[in-house]
From TrEMBL:
Key words, A-Z: ATP-binding, Nucleotide-binding, Transcription, Transcription regulation
Keyword match Transcription: yes
Protein name in UniProt: Sigma-54-dependent Fis family transcriptional regulator
GO MF entry, a single one: ATP binding
Biological processes annotated in GO: regulation of DNA-templated transcription
Originating organism: Thermosulfurimonas dismutans
Pfam family, one: HTH_8
InterPro entries hit by this protein: AAA+_ATPase, AAA_lid_NorR, Homeodomain-like_sf, HTH_Fis, P-loop_NTPase, Sigma_54_int, Sigma_54_int_dom_ATP-bd_1, Sigma_54_int_dom_ATP-bd_2
Region (Disordered), start-end ranges: 416-435
Domain Sigma-54 factor interaction: 177-405
Top-level taxon: Bacteria
CDD domains: AAA (cd00009)
Length: 483
């Protein structure tokens, strides 16, 4: 007995092998898989199924067996839309062959939309049929995979099912937050603690470390998770337009205001407003933002009466705001309003083995997006670990995307990443801030500590080193921390 209806007519397709695609015929096409003719000699493959009148469909396939009919493959769907697209194609071509016998067991008769023998639903024209059929056959499908899974893989499947269950309850884990280094584990712990509390959070870290991802993680674990998450980059919008973007405006309030527009603050009502690059907010807008935080009201440009808005504020910056306060570039009262709770993200260069864990995650993610198979060579893994990653996670994402595109084989090399002998980054210099830390004498280090009020975290961030490294330097030069 089969679990999916097979299409009686053959379908053309391509086996996307490097360097040249191979034409194939798919027989017995179903959601589970198909027979490929001529037989193919690969364990895993990317197929392009040619769907007349529709855009061709790319799928990952895994070899199951080979017999006189050809090579039997199982389809692996990375996206729900791909499965639905294939089902709609099959459904549209079933009606000429539809008889009274059950299409699953070929024995039973259909009674009230269900087979009298195998008991499968067969009311295929029902709009929700495929969802109901998948729900009914899920235990059988999982059982098929369970027989070939190693114990560690079975545990990952179990974890995935738990994650999906949590998602149904409104909790969405951020897979990008992976890693085991102590500083990131501390960040994960703090996110869990602060997320349910409706207080402002200030997220600090170098450019590209994932501050917006942290903000989204906080929102998705908060009591406001089912309400809007609205982000605004304070550095990306010209100063003259920033107030209108943040607080909105009324029709006719200035040249070009042909209609009223809600600002980001209003759009985030009952949800979370994320102010990225808050350190670049002009002083005159800092005063208006402070008033908004204190009163919970916004006033559109050209409007007389303020509007009540209920939002949680999350903010992020790569600047030293406490120093900006001392220099008069940032309001002290606003700083303390925002910094009720502070999270500091470590740069990627200080995350050790996490670099490779993140790289593997992004490689899998983008390979599925591009419908290709890619893996890192041993040399590429070493290059990832040794590289300083001055652009942090954002740079890693860009390099991996490019490597998947330019790689001429399944194996990604250091050159594909721009980190090896064929790439522009072969002789990547030591991170300048680290070189500076290593070359500092005791007097210079003491002066830098003094300039940062003997704050170890802030001084370490300036030097581009971890706090333990800075403590070693302090001990090496026999310095004492003062306040």
């Amino acid at each position: 007995m089969r679990m999916d209806i097979r299409l009686p007519t053959p379908v053309r397709g391509l086996l996307l092998e490097n360097p040249h695609p191979q034409e194939i015929i798919l027989e017995g096409l179903s959601l589970s898989g198909a027979y490929l003719r001529p037989p193919v000699r690969v364990g895993e493959a990317i197929l392009e199924i040619q769907l007349p009148e529709l855009e061709d469909l790319k799928l990952s396939a895994q070899k199951v067996r080979e017999d006189e009919r050809g090579t039997a493959v199982r389809f692996l769907f990375a996206e729900e839309q791909s499965l639905l697209k294939l089902w709609n194609f099959i459904l549209a071509r079933l009606s000429p062959y539809w008889g009274k016998a059950c299409p699953y067991c070929n024995r039973g008769v259909v009674v009230k939309g269900r087979c009298s023998t195998c008991r499968f639903l067969v009311d295929i024209k029902k709009s929700t049929y495929i969802y109901e059929h998948m729900a009914e056959t899920l235990p059988l499908r999982v059982g098929q995979y369970a027989r070939v899974l190693a114990s560690g893989e079975a545990l990952r499947v179990y974890t995935l099912l738990n994650r999906l269950t949590l998602c149904k309850q409104g909790y969405k884990p951020d897979i990008e937050f992976v890693g085991s280094c102590s500083r990131m584990l501390e960040v994960f712990s703090l996110i869990r603690k602060v997320a349910p509390l409706d207080v402002p959070v200030l997220i600090l870290g170098e450019s590209g470390t994932g501050k917006e991802l942290v903000a989204q993680a906080i929102h998705e674990r908060s009591l406001r998770r089912n309400n809007p998450f609205v982000a605004i980059n304070c550095a990306a919008i010209p100063e003259a337009l920033l107030e209108a973007e943040l607080f909105g405006y009324e029709k006719g309030s200035f040249t070009g205001a042909s209609a009223s527009k809600m600002g980001k603050a209003e759009l985030a009502h009952t949800g979370t407003l994320f102010l990225d690059e808050i350190g670049d907010l002009p002083l005159n807008l800092q005063a208006k933002l402070l008033r908004f935080l204190e009163k919970g009201e916004v006033q559109r440009i050209g409007e007389v009466r303020p509007r009540r808005v209920d939002v949680r504020i999350l903010a992020a910056t790569n600047r030293d705001l406490s120093r900006a306060v001392r220099e008069g570039a940032f309001r002290e009262d606003l700083y303390y309003r925002l910094a009720v709770f502070t999270l500091e993200l470590p740069p990627l260069r200080e995350r050790g083995e996490d670099k490779l864990i993140l790289a593997d995650y992004f490689l899998r993610k983008f390979s599925m997006e591009y419908h290709v198979k890619r893996r890192f060579s041993a040399a590429a893994k070493n290059a990832i670990l040794e590289y300083e990653w001055p652009g942090n996670v954002r740079e890693m994402i860009n390099k991996i995307r490019r490597a998947i595109i330019v790689s001429e084989s399944e194996e990604i090399t250091p050159g594909d990443l721009g980190l090896g002998s064929n790439g522009p980054m072969e002789k990547q210099p030591t991170h300048p801030s680290r070189m500076k830390a290593r070359d500092l004498d005791g007097e210079a280090l003491y002066r830098l500590l003094s300039e940062n009020d003997f704050n170890v975290s802030r001084t370490a961030r300036k030097l581009g080193v971890s706090r333990p490294t800075l403590y070693k330097l302090i001990k090496k030069h026999g310095l004492k921390l003062e306040r």
